[in-house]
Design brief:
80 residues; mainly alpha; 3 helices; 62% helix; 0% strand
């Protein structure tokens, strides 16, 4: 009787893992398809790729000297 119980328990565990795995894959696929259908593809960029610093006075007031130096050198700032 003990062997039958173990076999039945193992079959129940295996079955629940199979159902959970298939259910998770279906939900993941549905979420991925919905997210990709909802977001439109980005329009091609017409920028030249050159960094343009933000010279707004409000932005400049809270900026560090090191960041300003990077902007003035035409580099993309890496310092906050």
């Amino acid at each position: 009787m003990n062997g039958i119980r173990k076999t039945a328990l193992a079959a129940a565990i295996a079955g629940s893992m199979l159902v959970g795995g298939v259910g998770g894959a279906v939900l993941y696929a549905a979420t991925t398809l919905t997210a990709s259908a909802a977001s439109p593809s980005p329009a091609p960029s017409s920028s030249s790729g050159k960094f343009v610093p933000n010279e707004d006075p409000a932005h400049e007031a809270g900026e560090s000297a090191a960041r300003e130096a990077q902007e003035n050198a035409g580099q993309v700032p890496t310092i906050p």
